[in-house]
Each structure stands twice: as structure tokens, then as C-alpha cells.
Design goal:
TIM Barrel, alpha/beta, binds zinc ion, about 15% strand, about 290 residues, EC 4.1.2.40
Length: about 290
């Protein structure tokens, strides 16, 4: 099948208490490895790229490769644009074939966030594309977006409800204490807040900063309503550490087709662990894609 919108897979996940994992990929090999992982576990999958990766690979290369992956796979695959602040780029990605986008206007005041998100929702709904928006501010570093821990702001449950009503957004990323990058200590997740938000809004919720959250905390977040978990840093690190080790072990080996083999394996292994942790293994068939 072709790339599908992430809406049905996320609705199904929210309804049944598991989460679809969205993997940030930066190379074709990383994309192939996470597709292999999801295929083997029969899990619905979200391939995700940041704006930096769109600039690095080119959006048409990304959509072409993701379409090939979706055509060859037996599982539903969505292609998502992560943390984008630029309406024009979002529109271009949708036209290029992205089936899911995130408008991140969380750095603006509430009313401006609503306005910018609504504009994207209007265009996306005509195209059947899922829209994710953020409320509050997730701390840490994602591409060029740097949010100091002190400036990280948790989402207000009442505002979440109003935000959904005013924007019609299909997926919400409320800041609840996670951060981008690798945690120095344990993340300080506000579980009460997740439960309160989930009690007020029916849309799937997104857990950003999924790298390095202890398994029990991921499972608790998912059981409370987090229906999508983003994994970026850990995946990138697994890929790069493997390549680094290959060069240490075989300094004269210069063939990418050799050192990419263990790198892909490392990515696949980690992806399978995350899918199992989030409970989406075996759920590929539960998603209505037609
Ligand atoms: Zn994020």
C-alpha cells in the first residue's frame, strides 16, 4: 500500500492503550532498518524527519524512499514532519507526500499558537494529512530549536481542551516534563498532568523526548493516553556508535556496504525494543487504512 495518514493508527492506539513509535531517521539505511523492525513485529509505523533532515536529504528523496518502503511493506506506514515552525515548508512537505506534519508554534503565546496551528489544519484536512501541535514547551535540543530547562513549560489541561476545540488538531503533544536529547538524571514526568489532559481530550497524545525514558515510565505514560512516542537521539546514537566501532575494529575498511550492515542491525534491534515497549507489536492489522 502507499503511505497512510497517521490518524487512524494513532486513534486505534489511543483507544486501546498502546503507542505507535515514531522514529526519526536521517539516512535511507536508518529508514530501512526501522521498517524491517516494524515489519518483523507487524507494528504500525511512523517514519519521521526533522526540518534538518529535510534539508539534508531533500524532501522528495525522503518521500520517494518512504513510498517505496510503504509499497513493499505489509504494515501501515506514515511519514511525519517533526517540529516545523514554517508554514510554507509544511505545505511543501504535504505536497511532496508527507502524510503527517507537526506545526510547532509552542514558542508563541496561546492565541498565536492557535492561529498558526489552525492554518495548517485547514490545509491538511483537505489533503487527509494528520496534524500534530504542541502546547507548553518541551525542553532540550531538537535540530536548531533549543529550549533551556528553565524555560520548559508544562501544558495546562484546560488549555489543551480549548486548544483542540479552537484548532481541530488531530494529535496533541503536551509538554509534561520530558525533554529532547539524553536525560542527565531521570526525567521528571508529570503523570497526574498526563491523566488530567487525557481526561479532557480524546485525541491521541504524543510523548516527545522518548530517548532514555526508563521503561516503566514509558509504559505508565502510554497507559495514561500517550499514543505516539518519538524516538530520535537513541536511534541516531545506536547508528553512529556502530559505525564508530566498525572503524575502530576495522580501520582499513572503507566500504559503506560493509560498515552499514552492523549499523542497520543496531538500529533495527533498538527499534524492535521500543516497539515492544510501547505495545504496538502485532497491531498492524488493527489499523483501518482503507
Ligand atoms: Zn519533539
Amino acid at each position: 500500500m502507499g503511505l497512510v495518514s497517521s490518524t487512524p493508527m494513532l486513534m486505534e492506539a489511543r483507544k486501546n492503550g498502546y503507542a505507535v513509535v515514531a522514529f526519526n531517521v536521517h539516512t535511507i539505511e536508518m529508514m530501512q532498518a526501522v521498517v524491517d523492525a516494524a515489519e518483523e513485529l507487524q507494528a504500525p509505523l511512523i517514519l519521521q524527519t526533522t526540518v534538518g533532515t529535510v534539508k539534508h536529504l531533500g524532501m522528495d528523496y525522503i518521500t520517494a524512499a518512504a513510498k517505496v518502503a510503504a509499497a513493499q511493506a505489509s504494515i501501515p506506514i506514515a511519514l511525519h514532519l517533526d517540529h516545523c515552525q514554517d508554514f510554507e515548508l509544511i505545505a511543501q512537505c504535504m505536497r511532496s507526500g508527507y502524510t503527517s506534519v507537526m506545526i510547532d508554534a509552542s514558542m508563541h503565546p496561546f492565541a498565536e499558537n492557535v492561529k498558526r496551528t489552525r492554518k495548517v489544519v485547514e490545509l491538511a484536512s483537505a489533503l487527509g494529512v494528520n496534524v500534530e501541535a504542541e502546547l507548553g514547551k518541551v525542553g532540550g535540543v531538537e535540530d536548531d530549536i533549543v529550549v533551556d530547562e528553565a524555560d520548559a513549560l508544562l501544558a495546562d489541561p484546560a488549555e489543551c481542551e480549548l486548544f483542540i476545540e479552537l484548532t481541530g488538531v488531530s494529535t496533541l503533544a503536551p509538554a509534561i516534563g520530558t525533554a529532547h536529547g539524553i536525560y542527565k538524571g531521570e526525567p521528571n514526568i508529570d503523570f497526574t498532568r498526563i491523566a488530567e489532559i487525557a481526561g479532557k481530550v480524546e485525541v491521541p497524545l504524543v510523548l516527545h523526548g522518548g530517548s532514555g525514558i526508563p521503561a516503566a515510565q514509558v509504559q505508565r505514560s502510554v497507559s495514561l493516553g500517550m499514543a505516539k512516542m518519538n524516538v530520535a537521539t537513541e536511534l541516531k546514537n545506536a547508528f553512529s556508535e556502530s559505525i564508530k566501532q566498525s572503524f575502530i575494529d576495522h580501520p582499513s575498511e572503507l566500504d559503506p556496504r560493509k560498515y552499514m550492515v552492523p549499523a542497520k542491525e543496531a538500529v533495527k534491534k533498538l527499534a524492535m525494543e521500543k516497539i515492544q515497549l510501547c505495545g504496538s507489536a502485532g497491531k498492524a492489522n488493527a489499523v483501518q487504512t482503507r
